[in-house]
Amino acid sequence: MTALAWLIPAALFLGLIGLAGFLWALKSGQFEDLDGAAYRILEDDDESTSNDKR
Amino acid sequence: MALAVDFDTQRIAPQASRKVAQPGEAQEHVVLAVENLNCGGCMRKIERSLHEAPGIASVRANLSAKRVSVTFDPQTTGTEAIISTLAGAGFRAADLAVSPASETISADRDLLRRLAVAGFAAANIMLLSVSVWAGLASDMDPEIQSLFHWLSALIALPAIAYAGQPFFRSALTALNAWRLNMDVPISLALLLATGMSLAQTIRGTEQVYFDAGVSLVFFLLIGRYLDQSLRSRAKGAAQNLLGLKSGWATVLNDDGTSERLPARALLAGMRILVPAGERIAVDGRIVSGTTDIDEQLITGETLPRTARPGDTVYAGTTALTAPVEVEATAADDATLIAEIARLMETAEQNKGRYVRLADKAAALYAPVVHALGLATFLGWVLLGASWETALTTAISVLIITCPCALALAVPAVQVAATSRLFKHGVIMTASDGLERLAEVDTIVFDKTGTLTLGEPELTNATDIPDSTLAAAAALAMTSRHPYAQAVVRAARNRGLEFQPLSDVNETPGAGLSHSGENGLEVRLGSAEWCGAANPAVAIGTDSTGDNAASLYYLPAPGSSPVAFQFIDAMRADAAETIALARTAGFQVTLLSGDRVKAVKQTATAAGIEDWLAARRPHEKIAELDRLKAAGHRALMVGDGLNDAPALAAAHASLSPASAAEVSQIASDGIIQGSRLAPIIETIAVARRARRMSLENFAIAAAYNAICIPLAMLGFVTPLIAAIAMSASSIIVTANALRLTTAKLKL
After folding, report:
1. Residues of A with Cβ-Cβ distance to B43 under 8 angstroms
2. What is the mean pLDDT of residues B172-191?
3. Are the beta carbons of B718 and B395 closer than 8 angstroms?
C-alpha cells in the first residue's frame, strides 16, 4: 500500500493543476468569446491583433 | 433611442462605461455594441480599421457578444470618432447604455468557478469512494479506509462550503421570508449528509457520503449555470439594442461653445441644438426655431406636428424639417415621461405578485419531502434501529426526493425554450415571461410601428407620370420629412433617374419650394401650400385614403397640383399572423393612440373586428384592466413610449426591436426583424414549454413514487440515491432538449 502514499497526492496534484488551469483561463477571459475564437485561428496575419493586451 | 430619463432614481454617469485602463498613461477604455458583427471576417475588418485609426491602443472584437472593446488615447481620439471610423468600415456601433462590467457577467463567472471547484472535488472524492466501496467487498484495511474518509472530508468540506453557497444563500433568503423553495431541501440534505459523514469519519465507521453531497452540488450547478448563461446572453443582446438606439446631443454652453455629449449625460437646464433629422434627446421647450416634429414613438400619431418656440417637445421625437434649440426640462414633473413612469411603476407593482411554476411546486413539495424525511428518521428510531441507520435512511430520502429532477424540471425547459426563441430572433428579457405568455388568451396590438411599419408609403404611384414623380423626388431628396422620403423611395423603386436640387427652401408645417432656372417656382407640400384649396381639382385624387395623408406637387405657379397619397403600410405578414391567431382561438384587439379613421382602416385591413382608437396611456391601462376583470389574460404587443405602461400592466408583453427603449424594458421580450410571425412562435414555444415543465414534474413525481418507498425502507444508500437522482435529471434534461427541435403549431 506504499504506492498510495504517492499515487493519491499525484492524483490530487494533477486534478489541482487542471482546476487552476481552468480558473486561470476563466480569469484571463478565454471563455468570453467562444464563437470568435473559432474564427481567430483561421486568421493568417497575426499583426492585426498582436498588440492587444488581454 | 435617445432617452435621457432614467426610471431608476440615479442617473448613470456619462463615464459609466469607461475606466482608465492603465494608471500611468491617461488611456480610456470603451465597450461598443456593434449591430452587424456577424462573422469572423467582420471581426478582422473591425480590428484592422480601428488599428489604422489614430490614437487607438488596442482593439478586441467579441463575436459572441457582438461588442468591441477599445483602449484609446483621449487626447487623440474619442468615442464618437471611433464610432464614425466603424461607420466608415460599414459597421453600426454605439456606446453601451449600461456599464458592461455588469452583474450578469460576474454572476456567470462566479457560477462557473464554483462549478469547476465542485467538479474537481466530485471527481477526486469519487476516486477515493469507489476504492472504498470496492474495498468493502475485498480486503481494505480499516486504517486505509479511514484515511480515505479523512481525505474525502478534506476535499469535500471546503468544496461544499464554497460551491454550495448559491443554494445556501437562496434557501436562507426564502426562510427569512417564511417561504420554502427548492433550495431549502437541497441545502438541508447537503448539510445533513456532510455533517453526518463528518461525524462518522471521526468515529471511524462506514456510513460516509461525501461523494453524494459533492456530486449533488456539481449536477445542480450545471443546471444553474446553463440557465444563468442563457439569461445573461439575452440580457447582453438587449443591452446592445438599447445602446445602439441611444444617441448623442449637441449641448450649447453659455460661453457660446458647443460639445457633443451622450444622451444619458444630459441634465435639466441644458440648451441643446437639434439639427434637422436628429432625435431630440430630452424633454424640453423649444427656445428658438420652428420645425415639424415626428412624435410617432411617443403618441403613435403618424402625422408630424409643427412645433414653435415655447412648445413642449419630448425625448424620442425627431425634428424633421428645421434645426431647433431646446432647453431641457427633464426634471419637470409635468412631462409626459414622468406621467408614463408613474403609470409604469404602479403597473409593475401589481404584476410583482406572479408566482412562478417552480415555486408553486416547491411550496407543495418541500413540506412533504421534509415530513417524509422526518417520518423516516422517527420510524426507524421507533423500530429500534440505531440513530446512524435512521439518519442515513432519512438522508437518502431527502437526497432521492428533492433536488435535481425537480430543480431542473423548469430551468432545463426554460433554457431550451429561450435558446430556441433566441435563434428565431425573439429575446426574452423577463425570467418569468415565458410562463406568463403560455397563459395568454387575448392579443392586444398597438397600431403604428407594431401592426404597421411606422413609415409612410406612396399608394397612388401608378397614377403619377414618371416625369412628375422624378421631379417631385428631386425636390424631396433634401427633406427628412417621412412623406418626402417616401416620395424618394417610390421614385427609386420605379428606377427613375433624378438629381437632388440645390437651394430648396423648407417651410416647417407647409412644404418645400424651389425656384428653377426659368424663374418658376415648384412646390411640394400641403394642400394650402400648393394652392389645392379644393383637392378634388387635383389630378389623381381618390377619396379612399382616410388613414392616408396627401402631399401635393405644383409644377408651376397657377397650374393644377398633383396629389401624392400616402399610407402607413402594414407589416407584410400582419393580416396572416392575425388570421392565424384568431383561428387558434385568440381574441385579437387593436388599441391605438392614433385617430379613429386611421385605426379603423388598419383594423379592417388586418382583419381585426375589435378596435379602439385615440386612447391615452392611462386609458390603455384601463382597457387592459377591463379585459382582466372579464377573466382574460392579455398579451400586449406595442412599441411606442405611450404603450410602455400598458406593456407593463398586461399579463405578458412583447415589443418589436424598433420600439422605444422604455417599452423594451417594460416588455417581457423583444422581437427582431420586420415580421410579426415570431409572436405566434413565441406563444407556441411558451405553451409547449409549460407542457414540458409539467411533463418533467410528472417524470420527477413518478421517479419519486418508485424511489421514496424504497428509500424509506432503507434499501437505498445515499450513494445510490445520488446516482438515481442524476439519472432522473438526465431524463428531465433530455426531455427538455426536445423543445429545441420540436415542430410546433398553436
Report:
1. 36, 39-40
2. 82
3. yes
